[in-house]
Every structure is written in C-alpha cells, then in structure tokens.
C-alpha cells in the first residue's frame, strides 16, 4: 500500500506541474492567436505547440528547482535578512544597500550550498568522510568473508561483483576498484576485529547505512549456502557495535535462511520458474555462465540502489529499483552451475 501511495504522490506532483505548464502554454497561445488574428486549423496548431512548450518549460524549471532548492531558499532568506539589516541600521546610501545585500545574500547562498538534495548538511570534508565510510564498509565485509576461517569461491565472486559496482558508481575508474581491492585484502588479514571496524563504521554512518552494511554481512555469510555457528554469533554480536536493534537478527535470519532453504528445491522443481529467472537476466539456458554473469552484473549495476538514488528520482522509483535489484540477485543465485 505504501508503494501505491508514493506512486500516487509522485504522479500527483508531476500532474500539477503538467497542469501549470498547460496553463502557461494556453496563456501564451491565447496571446498569439489574438495578436495575429489566427483562425481555423492554425489555432489548434498554436495551442498544441504552446501547451507542449509550456509543460516542457515548467518541467525543466521544476527539475532545476529540485536540484537547487536549498540555494533558492538561501537567496530568499538572504534578501529577507538584507532588508531587515538595511532597515535596522538605517542604511540609506545606494552603495551601502548594495553591499549589504551582496554580503548577506552571498553568505546565505554559500551556506545553502552545503546542503545536499535530501536536506542533509554536508561538511567541507565530505569526500574524505565518504571515502572513510566506504573503506570501513569494505573492511567489515572482508572480515566477514574470513570469519569462518576460509574464503569460499562464492564469497570471492560476490566481493568481485561488489568491487565492480563500486567501480561503476565512481565512473568506471579502475584505480578506485584496485584501491578498494587492496583495502579488502589488507583488512582481511590485519589484527583488527570485525567489531572494531563495526564501531568505527557506526561513528561515520547514519542508522540506514548501518543497517545496509549489516544486510551485506548477511549476504556474504550466506554466499556459500550455509550459516555457520561462528557467523551466527558474529551477526548477533555486531548489532551492538553498529547500534542496531537486536531484532534485526531474526528479521534477516528469516529473510535469508528461509530463502536459501527453499531456493534450490523451488527453482529446480519448476522449469517455468527457472525460465522466469533466465527471462529476468535477459539470458537463455544455452548461454555460458560467463555470459550470464556479465548480464547479471550489467543489470545489477543499472538498478543498484546507490546509482538510482544519485539521480534524484522520486522515492517511489527508488523503491521499485530496490525490488528489481533484489529480483535480479535472486534470479542469478538460482542459476544452475555449468
């Protein structure tokens, strides 16, 4: 139901923008028709073109406003504060008024630039902050891969896919991938514990980011198809260091263990279900595992939550992309080994 509500809100906003654009286009069309005394077929042509033009203009303005809304608010607040300052200090000279507005509006504008699209205050060290968070997340995953004493081939493959997605997120820069790989290999064998990395990650992350990395730990723990005792213990204990609710263990246990137990028998007993998986991955049973793997990575990259969120799309589309990403991942996991 929540998804339908989000879609409804998104469509309502887009509809209002289209209606406003249509009004603008209609106003312009009315002026043109009246000025040039047009009639007949030309009136319809002018109205249609003007309405389309109006909708396009309003849509473009709306998209820009979404991107720069905090800067627009900063300018408005700056003008209000500037007017108050001019009145309070009784500034009457033209240059005095001009520089008062310049300094106050400029200051508010610069401060507003520090907010991201979601209204969160971004520090000047944002890039370093994000890099630290990324490396700590990779280190957490590295520790989890070796928590049972060995790194399985499935875990290695999953990590390789993760590094590919990170590389794609940063514009396909292979240096980023190599750096992340080095961080992974270093953390995997260093003397720090997974709990130390979890505590450090929590200090630079919000609640949603901590839960996201916790789910990654579940994925890596279940990559080989089994949840070992040491993995269960770690997944329980790490919750406290990430400052997450202990109930999340049961949530993800039912999500991943129930799915893992049923997945093989479900897909192997139903030819139609397996065909559906090939369809989701846009492959065929005749394709090699390498071809299927490439198709999976391409689709996973297209629907990856980080990539979708970076485009500033409505929340409803982000939710849809998350569900699609999970569907793609499950379809790939169901592929029979060749």
TrEMBL record:
It comes from Helicobacter pylori SouthAfrica50. Keywords: Chaperone, Membrane, Transmembrane, Transmembrane helix. GO terms for biological process: protein refolding. GO terms for molecular function: unfolded protein binding. Residues 276-338 form the J domain. Signal peptide: none annotated. The chain crosses the membrane at residues 7-35, 41-61, 68-89. One of its GO terms (cellular component) is cytoplasm. PROSITE patterns: DNAJ_2. It comes from the Bacteria. This is DnaJ domain protein.
């Amino acid at each position: 139901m929540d998804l339908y509500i989000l879609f409804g809100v998104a469509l309502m906003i887009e509809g209002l923008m289209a209606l406003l654009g249509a009004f603008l286009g209609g106003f312009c069309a009315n002026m043109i028709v009246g000025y040039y005394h047009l009639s007949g077929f030309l009136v319809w042509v002018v109205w249609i073109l003007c309405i389309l033009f109006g909708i396009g203009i309003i849509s473009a303005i709306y998209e820009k406003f979404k991107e720069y809304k905090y800067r627009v608010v900063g300018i408005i607040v700056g003008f209000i504060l500037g007017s108050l300052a001019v009145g309070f200090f009784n500034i009457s000279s033209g240059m005095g008024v001009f520089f008062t507005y310049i300094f106050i509006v400029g200051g508010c504008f610069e401060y507003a630039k520090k907010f991201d699209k979601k209204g969160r205050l971004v520090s000047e060290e944002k890039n370093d902050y994000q890099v630290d968070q990324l490396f700590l997340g990779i280190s957490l995953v590295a520790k989890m891969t070796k928590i049972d004493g060995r790194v399985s081939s499935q875990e290695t493959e999953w990590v390789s896919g993760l590094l590919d997605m990170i590389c794609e997120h940063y514009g396909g820069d292979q240096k980023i991938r190599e750096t992340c790989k080095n961080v992974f290999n270093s953390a995997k064998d260093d003397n720090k514990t997974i709990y130390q990395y979890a505590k450090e990650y929590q200090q630079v992350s919000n609640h949603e980011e901590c839960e996201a990395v916790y789910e990654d730990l579940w994925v890596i723990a279940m990559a080989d198809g089994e949840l070992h005792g040491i993995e269960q213990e770690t997944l329980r204990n790490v919750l406290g260091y990430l400052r997450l609710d202990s109930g999340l263990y049961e949530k993800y246990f039912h999500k991943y263990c129930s799915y893992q137990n049923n997945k093989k028998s479900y897909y192997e007993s139903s030819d139609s279900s397996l065909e559906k998986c090939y369809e989701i991955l846009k492959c065929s049973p005749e394709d090699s595992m390498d071809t299927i793997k490439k198709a999976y990575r391409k689709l996973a990259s297209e629907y990856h939550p980080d990539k979708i969120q970076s485009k500033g799309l409505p929340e409803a589309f982000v939710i849809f992309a998350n569900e699609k990403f999970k569907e793609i991942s499950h379809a790939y996991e169901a592929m029979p080994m060749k």
